[in-house]
């Protein structure tokens, strides 16, 4: 079972997830839901931050938002289960996939 970090260490991630929730309930509800991916970009960001923390999940989310544009990728694109190889605090751009095509992760039985 995965242990949670102490509350003070989780506060930035919880604050970011709170802002995402506010966005989803306010601006996104009025502007319409036009995301090219499933799950939506805000749902992706919320799940990535919950799973990987604010630093890694934030970079993954930024990469996803960069792909969600005309001429970008589309389709089913869930957050990765594990952080990409070679990604660390000194190489944050390696957390996100910045352009397509989408990575196809093999399903293992």
Automatic annotation (TrEMBL):
Membrane topology: Peripheral membrane protein
Primary location class: membrane
Pfam families linked: YidD
Localization, UniProt: Cell membrane
Keywords: Cell membrane, Membrane
Free-text function comment from the UniProt entry: Could be involved in insertion of integral membrane proteins into the membrane.
Designated name of the protein: Putative membrane protein insertion efficiency factor
Organism in which the protein naturally occurs: Methylocystis bryophila
């Amino acid at each position: 079972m995965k242990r949670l970090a102490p509350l003070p260490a989780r506060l930035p991630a919880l604050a970011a997830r709170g802002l995402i929730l506010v966005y989803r309930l306010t601006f996104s509800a009025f502007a319409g839901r036009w995301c090219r991916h499933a799950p939506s970009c805000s749902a992706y960001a919320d799940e990535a931050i919950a799973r990987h923390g604010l630093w890694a999940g934030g970079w993954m989310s930024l990469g996803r938002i960069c792909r969600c544009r005309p001429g970008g990728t589309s389709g089913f694109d869930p957050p990765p289960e594990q952080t990409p190889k070679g990604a660390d605090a000194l190489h944050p751009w390696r957390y996100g996939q910045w352009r397509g095509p989408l990575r196809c992760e093999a399903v293992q039985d």
